[in-house]
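Fill in residues.
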C-alpha cells in the first residue's frame, strides 16, 4: 500500500534540450494546474487535451515560462490517478524552477520509479510489465527493446497465467473433493490432475530454457579476440566496428592493453575485447598485456581464436590454442585471400570455424551470424509467438515452481494425504505470484522500483 498523496518529478534527462517535462500524479494535480497555469484561451481545462499558456508563480505573479500543459483525469492515465504534465523549454534551471513551484503547491518529490510503482499498485500493470519499462528505457539494441516491449505489453504475463491456470484447475479438483466429502462426489481421475500439472511443468521449462537468450539480448555478451601477434586481431576489431579503433601495424606487440568496444550484431549487444598478442616476451609492458589477455579468456562468453592461414602453426599458435581449450570458441581463419598453408590441428576440428579476410571483408558476414547463433535462437527476436525470460528473478521463481510441482507429482502418485499435496500446489502458485507481483515481498518491490530514474 502507499499514501495517496501527490508526487512530482522531472521526467526528461538532465541537461539542455528543446523540451523539458515536469510530471505530477495524485489528487491535487488538477488544483495545481489551475493555480500555476494560465491558458491563452478561457474556458477551463478538459481531460486529455493540450493547452498552450504560461506558468506563473501565484505568490508573485511572475511568469516562469510559456508551456504546453495536459491534465489527464483518472482512471485513464499512466498511474490511474489524476496526472498533470507540463512541457516547457528544456533548460535545467528553468525546469527545476517549475518543479520547485509545483512542490510549493502541495506536491512532494517522487521517489525513483514511483510513477510506475503507482501504476503497478493501482492494478494498471503487473510487476513483469513494470520491470519491462526500465528495460525499454535501457535497451541497447532494437532486439533488446523489442523483447522489453513484448513483456511490457503483457506477453510474458500471459504465459505465466497459462501456467497458473493448469495448476489452479488441478487444485480445484482436489479441493472440491476435500471440501465436500459428504456429497459423495466422484473424485477426478488421477490422470486428469497429473495431466494439468505435467502441462504446467512443460510450460515452466519452456520459459526457463529461453532465459539465456533473453538475458543476452537484454544485457549483451563479451567476445574476446585472441591470437598471437600479427594474425589480424586488431584488424578484425576494426572490421566488426566498421571504424578504425585499434592501431594496426606490421610491428608485433602493438596492442598492450585490452581494448573494449560495443558492437550491435543483428540485435545482440556484443562487447568486443581486443587483447595483446599471446607469446613469450621479455618486454615488461607487453608481458603484462599477455597476462591480462590470458585472465580475460576465462571470463569471456566467447573467444574468437584468430589464426593466420597463410602460415603454418607454430609454438605461439599452440600456446593460445591450449589457453582456450576450456572456452566457448569460434576459430577465425584469417588472411584467406592469401595461399592457405595452415592445417587445422586435431584439437580444433570439432570447433566452429570460419574463413575470413579482414583485407577484403570476405567471411565477415558469416562470422557475425555465427556469433549471433552461439547465443540466440532466431525466433527470439522474430515476433510475438516466441517469449523469453530476461530477468534472473523470473527464472528463479519458475525454478521454484517447477520444484514444487515435481514434489507434488511424487507425493500424489505415492498416495500422500490430499491436504498435504495441495500445499505443494499452493506453494507453486505463490512462486508464480512472485513474478507478477501478487505475492512479491515489499523489499523486492522496493529494490525493483529503486532501479528506475526519478520521474518514471
Amino acid at each position: 500500500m502507499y499514501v495517496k498523496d501527490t508526487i512530482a518529478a522531472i521526467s526528461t534527462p538532465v541537461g539542455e534540450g528543446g523540451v523539458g517535462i515536469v510530471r505530477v500524479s495524485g489528487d491535487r494535480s488538477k488544483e495545481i494546474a489551475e493555480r500555476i497555469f494560465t491558458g491563452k484561451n478561457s474556458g477551463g481545462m478538459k481531460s486529455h487535451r493540450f493547452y498552450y499558456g504560461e506558468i506563473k508563480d501565484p505568490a508573485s505573479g511572475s511568469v516562469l515560462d510559456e508551456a504546453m500543459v495536459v491534465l489527464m483525469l483518472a482512471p485513464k492515465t499512466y498511474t490511474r490517478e489524476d496526472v498533470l504534465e507540463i512541457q516547457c523549454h528544456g533548460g535545467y534551471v528553468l525546469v527545476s524552477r517549475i518543479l520547485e513551484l509545483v512542490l510549493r503547491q502541495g506536491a512532494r518529490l517522487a521517489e525513483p520509479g514511483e510513477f510506475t510503482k503507482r501504476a503497478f499498485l493501482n492494478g494498471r500493470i503487473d510487476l513483469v510489465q513494470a520491470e519491462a519499462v526500465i528495460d525499454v528505457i535501457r535497451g541497447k539494441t532494437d532486439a533488446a527493446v523489442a523483447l522489453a516491449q513484448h513483456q511490457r505489453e503483457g506477453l510474458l504475463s500471459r504465459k505465466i497465467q497459462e501456467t497458473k491456470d493448469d495448476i489452479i484447475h488441478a487444485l480445484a479438483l482436489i479441493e472440491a473433493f476435500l471440501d465436500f466429502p459428504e456429497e459423495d462426489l466422484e473424485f477426478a481421475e488421477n490422470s486428469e490432475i497429473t495431466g494439468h500439472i505435467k502441462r504446467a511443468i512443460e510450460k515452466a521449462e519452456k520459459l526457463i530454457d529461453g532465459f539465456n537468450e533473453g538475458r543476452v539480448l537484454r544485457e549483451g555478451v563479451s567476445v574476446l579476440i585472441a591470437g598471437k601477434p600479427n594474425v589480424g586481431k586488431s584488424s578484425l576489431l576494426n572490421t566488426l566496428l566498421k571504424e578504425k579503433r585499434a592501431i594496426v601495424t606490421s610491428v608485433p606487440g602493438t596492442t598492450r592493453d585490452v581494448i573494449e568496444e560495443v558492437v550491435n550484431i543483428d540485435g545482440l549487444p556484443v562487447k568486443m575485447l581486443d587483447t595483446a598478442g599471446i607469446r613469450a616476451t621479455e618486454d615488461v609492458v607487453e608481458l603484462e598485456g599477455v597476462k591480462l589477455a590470458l585472465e580475460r579468456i576465462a571470463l569471456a562468453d566467447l573467444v574468437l581464436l584468430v589464426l593466420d592461414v597463410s602460415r603454418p602453426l607454430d609454438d605461439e599458435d599452440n600456446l593460445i590454442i591450449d589457453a582456450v581449450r576450456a572456452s566457448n570458441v569460434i576459430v577465425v581463419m584469417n588472411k584467406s585471400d592469401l595461399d592457405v598453408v595452415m592445417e587445422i590441428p586435431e584439437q580444433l576440428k570439432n570447433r566452429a570455424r570460419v574463413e575470413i579476410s579482414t583485407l577484403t571483408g570476405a567471411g565477415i558476414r558469416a562470422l557475425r551470424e555465427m556469433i549471433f547463433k552461439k547465443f540466440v535462437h532466431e525466433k527470439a527476436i522474430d515476433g510475438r509467438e516466441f517469449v523469453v525470460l530476461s530477468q534472473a528473478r523470473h527464472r528463479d521463481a519458475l525454478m521454484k515452481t517447477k520444484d514444487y510441482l515435481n514434489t507434488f507429482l511424487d507425493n500424489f502418485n505415492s498416495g500422500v494425504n490430499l491436504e498435504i499435496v495441495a500445499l505443494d500446489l499452493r506453494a507453486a502458485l505463490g512462486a508464480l505470484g512472485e513474478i507478477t507481483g501478487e505475492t512479491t515481498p515489499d523489499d523486492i518491490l522496493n529494490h525493483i522500483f529503486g532501479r528506475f530514474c526519478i520521474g518514471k
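Residues 246-256 have pLDDT under 50 and may be disordered.
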